[in-house]
Amino acid sequence: xxxxxxxxxxxxxxxxxxxxxxxxxxxxxxxxxxxxxxxxxxxxxxxxxxxxxxxxxxxxxxxxxxxxxxxxxxxxxxxxxxxxxxxxxxxxxxxxxxxxxxxxxxxxxxxxxxxxxxxxxxxxxxxxxxxxxxxxxxxxxxxxxxxxxxxxxxxxxxxxxxxxxxxxxxxxxxxxxxxxxxxxxxxxxxxxxxxxxxxxxxxxxxxxxxxxxxxxxxxxxxxxxxxxxxxxxxxxxxxxxxxxxxxxxxxxxxxxxxxxxxxxxxxxxxxxxxxxxxxxxxxxxxxxxxxxxxxxxxxxxxxxxxxxxxxxxxxxxxxxxxxxxxxxxxxxxxxxxxxxxxxxxxxxxxxxxxxxxxxxxxxxx
Length: 365
Ligand SMILES: [Zn+2]
Ligand SMILES: [Zn+2]
Known about the structure:
Blueprint: H1 2-11, H2 26-46, H3 53-105, H4 108-134, E1 151-152, E2 159-160, E3 165-167, E4 172-174, E5 179-181, E6 186-188, H5 193-213, H6 215-233, H7 237-240, H8 250-286, H9 290-305, H10 318-326, H11 333-339
Antiparallel strand pairs: 1-2, 3-4, 5-6
One zinc ion is lined by residues 153, 155-156, 166, 173.
């Protein structure tokens, strides 16, 4: 308070500007003093020693964040419906047009292989998508404040265990938060990270399988559609072709269009989701989540400037990181818990984390 008063006194213009300042009107000085007092009063209402440019930017962009969060929350439901609808349409097209062709034209052993592989991928995709959307990612306990924590969440006003971050869309703290996924309408965290990754992996494999299996039918359908289109431009077959092209029935035209839709959709998803899956596989190998990737990168630069090397305390070695994610404790688990549907819980509670080393500064060596 004493400092504030001194500041005011300094800011207050001197009456008359001293002996030689007789030209300055007294009213002007009084108005300036009043303005200084008003500014101080306003500043005292919202002054915070922790204010910085980041806080100011956060405040300015708060309405935009609010809109984005709400739109994402609302779009989450639409995205889940879209994934369900598109996956169902692909499965229906495969059952109606691809499988009958495979059964009627392929040798018996190839038919068996297609039936087994196709259905295995379908079961894995449906199981992991259902589990990823319905399994809560895990939240820190609100009633127990005696948990290992690294900070306090400013939004939830609860202790934040290591690797926990606040999701502004779900408006809750999430254990080992990876990201908020609008395609799942759920946060990806400690308890559903495995389901999320397995869904991405099996969906990519399923799309690659469909794309390869329907390639010949796609080329045939594309050729047929092209011929039909050219015939509309050149009505007389002789004007373009030496021999007349066959007339396609409504069922055949529908089949052609469905196969083209299937191939374009599955190929596009295979490329896009394949890239995302690969990125998450790299992160898992490094023992990082998507959030930690940004934090660790900043920390690496900060420590490099100090001549130190950053080491991720949650990196347990590539194979061990994968074992931790899939909850693999013995060799048979790779088959029963990774290649087959399994709803086992991940290792650990997501609150306590073993670090690979303990030093005064755990981030640096
Ligand atoms: Zn929180
Ligand atoms: Zn969320």
